[in-house]
Design a protein that fits this description.
Radius of gyration: 17 Å
Order of helices and strands: HEEEEHEEEHEEEEEH
Strand order of the largest sheet: 4-3-2-1-5-8-10-11-12
GO molecular function: CoA-transferase activity
Low-confidence stretches: none
Protein name: 3-oxoacid CoA-transferase subunit B
Shape: globular
Family: Belongs to the 3-oxoacid CoA-transferase subunit B family.
CATH class: Alpha Beta
Largest sheet: 9 strands, mixed
Keywords: Transferase
Strand content: 15-25%
Organism: Yoonia litorea
Number of strands: 12
Oligomer: single chain
CATH topology: Glutaconate Coenzyme A-transferase
Structural class: alpha/beta
Helix content: 10-25%
CATH superfamily: Glutaconate Coenzyme A-transferase
Length: about 210
């Protein structure tokens, strides 16, 4: 069976190592906070928080404590707060080791489109463009196809780009792929998913 959202987030959490400072994008990436476990990971939110905890239990939410996706979260004993300018100074200054982001499309060259669909209302660009330009490693977590069954892993992105050649690893509901020089490499298949299943659902070149 393909992975569900929580299994994708848990797989993304395996990418993290002790001592890393990591930014989580909105959508599925926010769930990664629930799967960090005993690792010494510091999660950063671009709205001005360093040291995010997991999501709160029902009834324990603090409406003033939110992540960049406006979801209520928890704080840790070491949590620090600061303004948005300081937050983006960390990102642009190369202080964040990795970003785990959602995407609408990813290309075989590692191009990322995740901030707008032409003709639809955009609430804000968010921090994605700064993140993909400033962090050490970009991991995308998303469904492999859209609701119509069309591949979101493409030869070339059709939507406006967030960044060119910025994605290092793609984690989808079907498996894990790395961006290489001549196409994508299948690293891991989800339980019950074959290499052939991934190839069939992928428009991009797989080598």
């Amino acid at each position: 069976m393909p992975w569900d959202r929580n299994q994708m987030a848990a797989r993304a959490a395996q990418e993290l190592e002790d001592g890393m400072y990591v930014n989580l994008g909105i959508g599925i990436p926010t769930l990664v906070a629930n799967y960090v476990g005993d690792k010494d990971i510091t999660l950063q939110s671009e709205n001005g928080m360093l040291g995010m905890g997991p999501f709160p239990f029902e009834g324990e939410e603090d409406p003033d404590l939110i992540n960049a996706g406006k979801q209520t979260i928890t704080e840790l004993r070491r949590t620090a707060y600061f303004d948005s300018a300081t937050s983006f100074g960390m990102i642009r200054g190369g202080k964040i080791a990795a970003a785990i982001l959602g995407a609408m499309e990813v290309s075989e060259d590692g191009d990322l489109a995740n901030w707008m669909i032409p003709g639809k209302l955009v609430k804000g660009m968010g921090g994605a463009m700064d993140l993909v330009a400033g962090v050490g490693r970009v991991i995308v977590v998303m469904d492999h196809t859209n609701k119509h069954g069309d591949s979101k892993v493409l030869k070339e992105c059709t939507l406006p780009l967030t960044g060119k050649g910025v994605v290092d690893r793609i984690i989808t509901n079907l498996g894990v792929l790395d961006v290489g020089q001549k196409g994508l490499h299948i690293v891991e298949c989800a339980d019950g998913v074959s290499r052939e299943d991934i190839i069939a659902a992928t428009e991009a070149t797989i080598v």
